Amino acid sequence: MTLVTLHHVEPAINAPRKTATTTSAFPAPTSIPLIKYGVVIDAGSSGSRIFVYRWETVADEEPLKIVKIFPSTPADEHRAVVEGGIQTKGASQATMDEYLTPLLLSAKEFLQSQDPPPRDVPIYLLATGGMRSLKTQDQGPILDFAHTVISSYSSTFHIGTRATTTRVITGELEGLYGWVALNYGRYASEPIVGLQEMGGASIQIAFRDVSGRIDDMTRVCLLSAPEGHSVYSATWDGFGADTMRGNLLQLLSNEAGLERWVIDNPCLPRGEVGKPFGNPPRWSVGTGDFAACLKITKRLLEMGSKVHEGIPSYPDIKPSTNHFLGVSNYWYTYQFFGNWGGYDLGRVYDRQRFEAAAAKYCSHTWGELDVKVDKYVEAKCFNAAWMLTLLHDHEHGFGLEMTKYETWRGLFRFPTTPVLASRSSWTMGAIALVARHGGLKFCPDDDEEMLALSYNTSTYGQSSPLVVPHIDVGVPPSTVPSVQEVEVPSSHVIASILNPIGSAPLVVNVALLVVLIVSMVVISYRRLYHSRPSAVPSVYNAILEEEMFDAEEQQVLFGGRPAFVRSGEVKIIPCA
């Protein structure tokens, strides 16, 4: 059991100041604010991002207030990210130097623009899912190369040891840092918020528990409980949205059989042609059957639960934590369907309207949809179905009922304010620990290097792939076994026409493939240049008709500020 000592970092949103007595590992603050900086590189599975944080001490209160100051503009955003996971860049020192230098230069130039320019700024490179998928012995050289690059910037950054500052973190730590980011600086009278995060490869859940029935808890001391919260944090590798959608394609391929080139996909709008997958390539064509898509995601969750630790059930933890914040793909998916369901993105999660919006969009004919075409649009219907299954399935999911009362109370919501958005990143929680204890450790007297070495960060070999006979479908391994029987609609006319028949000559099959490609081009041209206005009613026309949430009546405690806005104040946030 680990003790984590944190002190007041930032007061709750618009909450009155209160006097609190805590102990600190640092000398009492003076009347002159002391400004400090810290840097975190989030080395994810698909790219790396760099963040610069600032905090200052204040004379008569707990000293810590953390603000992300870089990136802060669209131009900064472009400079603060590099594409491709760090796990793919470890072939040589030169490759790693080329990969990390743009990030380090952007942070260095920004820090040098401060008055006065800071020196000895602590910097951490923390790698997540992509690096966790490697063997431990394969992680080492990549981290060594990365640490060598970072060390060449010692004029600006404080360079710690490779083991402490350039390392892979477990999914559990990622969730714990995210929980700290949401809850640091809250008073005892304010709610403790649980975290739900859906990434591309994994999901994380972290929450406080007071039941004493859950093993493997981490003790975290915050202002709201100096004696410590018992925090549960867990990750489910292979349950992320991208990996599970790959499992869906494998599942549909198993059901369709080897002789079919084109398969029906209920998790796409009618007629939408998905990107080719597999070797030899296959295509999936939408049937627009969202109910069937929900059945398949439930089947995937059931099978995944047989080989993974079960997801905690909300009814069991309700006495301990009854507010949750959904981040990453939960929030991106809810944003996307807001224009299709007449729900207010500024309010809390509305399950009924979200599900209706997803079903409405996903049952449309693809050529009639007026929607921005990008690399994410193909995943929207599946992501909605997977989100609904994870959150609401009572047998294997989180088991949220989301009654009208629970919706009114704000049981589940999203980072809809700038402060909540800044707190929705686990890097903020990591910096809170660095700022408070002088290093990424839980207590002032912890040995940071021993703590870093105590975690097994490799998940290599822990996932078992779906088995598709004689076909490499080109998707990440998962925890879900092969499927023998799944109900999948098979009435799509185009799919039945384009599938090769028996032992048809090669020239016939090639001709059919040409027809498919031409069809895709025609559909794309029609959508890009002749798209029709959507027949979906405006988001303002159907917002919570009979049960309006009044801002004065709804004091859902996220920092003492009403968690809702009036319908006239709703602002549609563009999909990320």
Automatic annotation (TrEMBL):
Organism the protein comes from: Hypsizygus marmoreus
Record flagged with keyword ATP-binding: yes
Any one GO BP annotation for this protein: CTP metabolic process
Domain of life of the source: Eukaryota
Protein name as catalogued: Golgi apyrase
One Pfam assignment: GDA1_CD39
Family, similarity comment: Belongs to the GDA1/CD39 NTPase family.
Name of the encoding gene: ynd1
Listed Gene3D superfamilies: 3.30.420.40, Exopolyphosphatase. Domain 2
PANTHER family, A to Z: ADENOSINE/GUANOSINE DIPHOSPHATASE, NUCLEOSIDE-DIPHOSPHATASE MIG-23
Annotated ATP binding sites: 200-204
Membrane-spanning ranges: 506-525
Gene Ontology CC terms: Golgi apparatus; membrane
